[in-house]
Every structure is written in structure tokens, then in C-alpha cells.
Amino acid sequence: MEKPILEAKDVYKIYDMGKVKVNALSGVSLKVYKGNFISIMGPSGSGKTTLLDVMSALLRPTMGDVLINGTGISTMDDNELAKVRGKTIGFIFQTFNLIPRMTALENVMLPLWFQGVSMADRKKRATEILEKVGLGERVDHKPSELSGGQRQRVAIARALAVDPDVIVADEPTGNLDSVSGEQILQLIDDLNKKEGKTVLMVTHERSIGKRAHEILHLKDGKIIKNETNGRKRK
Q1: Looking at the domain assignment, is residue 65 inside a domain?
Q2: In 10 A of CB 116, how many CB atoms?
Q3: pLDDT surpasses 80 at 229
Q4: pLDDT tens digits, residue range 43-100?
Q5: Which domain holds residue 120?
């Protein structure tokens, strides 16, 4: 039987805001299989980003557990968690999160440095990926010298640098115009369809959510509906 690549088991995430406790997630269980493309939708404050962050091990759950390739993150120390996360998951953020003083090439090389890859191999791999996302002529440009769409392509290249199993994207087109946004979504589609990358994506737009195999609807920290979208994963 196929095992999920990511799994949440009765996960709670509670934020302590002084005298007030906020239940961002309340008993969420979810299985994500290789090749899935899942959109996470819901109103503001429903727990979308918290679910994404917990599933990708950026946050530890308050209760319950998240399993990455069958291993619970609650049993890992911070170093183990960072290592597993670094090899398994690539991150794409709405605000790009590029380092301003670094070139596109250096930004994409960075996660490979954390994985102990040699300088020569880092440069080769980063150059190849930037060419793949259409930025072969922009490798020496810094983020301030790139358009929003180009910066998001650098962010995608950085996410792909370590050849992760899973891509997590938090509103990846939120800061882009419609044309650039469509190009980025097509690139994410291709990563899923042609390369078999598993994708978890937060969006507030129905038209974007419909690109996925499944749409999870969140409200008050709970999955209230799991909608199958007709697309089939490989």
C-alpha cells in the first residue's frame, strides 16, 4: 500500500497570546501522497498558512504529529528536522524571501551550501535550474534588478535546488500582475504534471485553487470540506 509523503495526525496548533489562546488548527488530519497537487483555501484567519507551515515542518504542532516519509517530526531535534526539511521540501513564498545582496545565482546556490554541496556543483546546479525557469540571462542580477515575476522564478529555482519531493507555495502569485501570475502558475503546474512534484499551495482565489487535484476548505482551524477537482495525479 502506498504510504503518504506527508501526513498530519490529529494536529492542533495553539498560539499563546498572553491571556488569550488562539486555536489556529483544531484536530486536523491529512494525508498527502506523492504527485498530489492540493490547494488550501479558506477565509482570513482560517489556519491556511499555519497548516502549510506545520505540514512542511516550519512549525511544530502543539498536539498531534506530522510525519515526513513516515517519520514523526516530534521525535526529531532541530538539527534533524532542518536536515529532513531541507532535503524534502522546497518553499515558495508570496514575498519571494530572496537575499537582496545576493545575485539570482547565489540565492539559488544557498540551499545547496546548507546541504554541503561543493562550490562547483552548487554553481552548476543553480545555473541549470535558472536556465530551466527562463532566467539563464539573469543569473548575475540581484533581486532589485529583476521584475516581480522574475524574482518569483528565482524563488522557484531556489526551491528546486535540492530536488525536493514536495513544493509548498504560500500565495505564490499574491504580489504579481495577472500575466506574471499565470506564468508562475503554469510553471508550478508543469512541476507537478511533468516532473511529478507534490504541491501544497495556499490561495484565496477559486480560479487558482481549481488547478489542483484536491481543494481543502478550512474554517476556524478545521478542514470542513475536501473537494476533488477531477484532475488525476500520475
Answers
A1: no
A2: 7
A3: no
A4: 998 999 999 999 999 999 999 999 999 999 988 899 888 888 888 999 998 888 999 9
A5: 34-49+76-228
Closest CA to 185 of 151, 154, 208, 217: 208
Q: What are residue 92's DSSP bridge partners?
A: 169
End-to-end CA distance of the chain: 16
Domain tally for the chain?
1
pTM: 0.89
Could you tell me if residue 4 is inside a domain?
no
> Could you give the angle at the alpha carbon of 164 between the alpha carbons of 200 and 48, nearest 5°?
20
Closest CA to 149 of 177, 123, 190: 177
Residues 37 and 233: beta-carbon distance below 8 Å: yes
Confirm whether 58 is domain-assigned: no
> Is residue 9 within 8 Å of 202, Cβ to Cβ?
no
Q: What is the 3-state secondary structure (H, E, C) of the chain?
A: CCCCCEEEEEEEEEEEECCEEEEEEEEEEEEECCCCEEEEECCCCCCHHHHHHHHCCCCCCCEEEEEECCEEHHHCCHHHHHHHHHHHEEEEECCCCCCCCCCHHHHHHHHHHHCCCCHHHHHHHHHHHHHHCCCCCCCCCCHHHCCHHHHHHHHHHHHHCCCCCEEEEECCCCCCCHHHHHHHHHHHHHHHHCCCCEEEEECCCHHHHCCCCEEEEEECCEEEEEEECCCCCC
Distance CA(158)–CA(92), nearest Å, equals 9
Residue 124 domain-assigned? yes
